[in-house]
């Protein structure tokens, strides 16, 4: 009897381990610092468009530079509304 692991059902790709050598360090555009702090944008929903009819705050998690505080543009929430 073999103990072959079950094959994943079609549709979902198997999970792959990520090799750290295949990753790339993200650095701050402004100062080149490579450490970031977890922070949040708060988006206010006006009562007019809120599903509850009440003003609401929606936190959007981003990372800001631990040195100069800049949030890289790629982390910025889209602001096309
Ligand atoms: Zn910076």
Detail the topology: elements first, then pairings.
Layout: E1 36-45, E2 56-65
Antiparallel strand pairs: 1-2
The chain binds zinc ion.
Compact summary:
This protein has one domain (25-81).
| Distance N to C terminus | 59 Å
Radius of gyration: 21 Å
Helix share, percent: under 10%
Q: Strands of the biggest beta sheet: in what spatial order?
A: 1-2
- Biggest sheet features: 2 strands, antiparallel
| Bound ligands, named by name, code or SMILES | zinc ion
Per DSSP, what share of the residues sits in E-state strands of 2 or more residues?
15-25%
Number of helices: 0
Count of domains = 1
Q: Specify the overall morphology.
A: flat
Structural class: mainly beta
Unreliable stretches:
none
Reading the helices and strands in chain order gives EE
The beta-strand count equals: 2
The whole-number mean of residue pLDDT values reads 86
Q: How would you describe this structure in keywords?
A:
2 strands, 25% strand, single chain, two-stranded antiparallel ribbon, binds zinc ion, 81 residues, mainly beta
Describe the structure.
The protein has one domain (25-81). Strands 1-2 form a two-stranded antiparallel sheet. It is built from no helices and two strands. 0% of the residues lie in helices and 25% in strands. The protein has 81 residues and is mainly beta. The chain has strands at 36-45, 56-65. Bound molecules: zinc ion. The site of zinc ion has 8 residues, from loops.
């Amino acid at each position: 009897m073999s103990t072959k692991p079950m094959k994943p059902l079609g549709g979902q790709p198997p999970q792959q381990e990520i090799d750290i050598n295949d990753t790339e360090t993200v650095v701050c555009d402004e100062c080149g610092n490579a450490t970031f702090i977890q922070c949040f944008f708060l988006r206010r929903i006006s009562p007019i468009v809120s599903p509850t009819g009440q003003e609401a705050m929606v936190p959007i998690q981003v990372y800001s530079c631990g040195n100069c505080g800049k949030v890289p543009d790629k982390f910025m929430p889209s602001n096309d509304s």
